[in-house]
Amino acid sequence: MTPTAGSSQASPSQTLSRGIRALEILAEAQQPLTIAELADAMGVHRSVAYRILRTLEDHSLLVRDDGGRVQPGPGLAVLARGVARSLQTAALPELTQLANALTMSTFVAVWDHEDCVTLVTVDPRHTGATVVQHPGSRHPISAGAPGIAIQSAFSEPEWNALAPGIPYRAEAAEARRRGFAASHDEVIAGVSSLAVPVRVPGGRPAALGVVYIRAAQDPEEVAAALVAGAARIEGQLG
After folding, report:
1. How far apart are alpha carbons 219 and 137 in whole angstroms?
2. In the chain, where do the E strands start and end?
3. CA 69, 71, 72: angle at the middle one, nearest 5?
4. Spatial separation of the C-alpha atoms in residues 47 and 231, rounded to whole Å
5. How much is the pLDDT for 154?
6. Helix (H, G, I), strand (E, B) or coil at 43
7. Cα separation of 95 and 108, whole Å?
8. pLDDT per position as a tens digit, 15-69
9. pLDDT of the residue at 26
């Protein structure tokens, strides 16, 4: 049935959805893809994929190399720059200071439906092994310290009303009491994380966190530095 002008729910755009899916596949791919490979991943005929790619290419959202393989284009960087712009601007100096003081990879993650998505990350200077948390990487909000920290910004009844399909973890109640969240081996095998909530005026909370394999510092001291950093970010956000 064709929706009328008064319909409460519009029909989604299949072409737009396919274009977004193509960008998601390319962002997750470890190397450039052929058009045939991308079409297979999208589950569409090659001719359909080609038409979508031409449009995305016109907007510099993807590029093709000399061999015709497709990869994300510079236009995506322009779009990403505007995502949570004020949070990125406020967080970057703090992330840089914390990364170098703690010699750990630091990051800000934001809540996106059932996932946590890394918004911005900074690795320490002049160190050996660090754990890189790439911007755009995502994992379920039900796993890892960032998700626990985000949940801890709410009481259990508040969370259940806001996100009824996502259980409130017992660790979130503990993090709410302690002021920080901790996890080990939940998102990446062998990797630990500490995180604290960042309250964003008018928006969903984010999380400020670190990831590491072995901590040289007392986790309580690292958590205290994160809490202070989050407070400064919140101060910048107003």
Report:
1. 24
2. 62-64, 70-72, 105-112, 115-122, 138-140, 181-184, 192-198, 206-212
3. 160
4. 52
5. 93
6. coil
7. 8
8. 888 888 888 788 778 888 998 999 999 999 989 888 888 888 888 888 888 888 9
9. 83
Token pair for 203: 């928006």
* pLDDT for res 4: 42
**Lookup: tokens for 202:** 């008018």
Strands of 67-156, DSSP E = 70-72, 105-112, 115-122, 138-140
Which residue is it, tokens 């995305």? Answer: 56
Residue matched to tokens 């002049």:
126
pLDDT at 8: 42
Give tens-digit pLDDT for 143-190: 899 999 999 999 999 999 999 989 999 999 999 999 999 998 887 778
Q: What is the pTM of this model?
A: 0.69
Q: Which residue is associated with the tokens 């893809």? A: 33
Distance CA 136, CA 120 (A): 8
Q: Is 138 exposed, middle or buried (0-12, 13-18, 19+ CB in 10 A)?
A: middle
**Region class of 214: left (phi > 0), else alpha (psi between -120 and 50), else beta:** beta
> What is the secondary structure of 197-221 as a DSSP string?
EE--TTS--EEEEEEESS-SS-HHH
DSSP 3-state of 54: helix
Are the CB atoms for 200 and 206 separated by under 8 Å? yes
Strand runs labelled E in 66-199: 70-72, 105-112, 115-122, 138-140, 181-184, 192-198
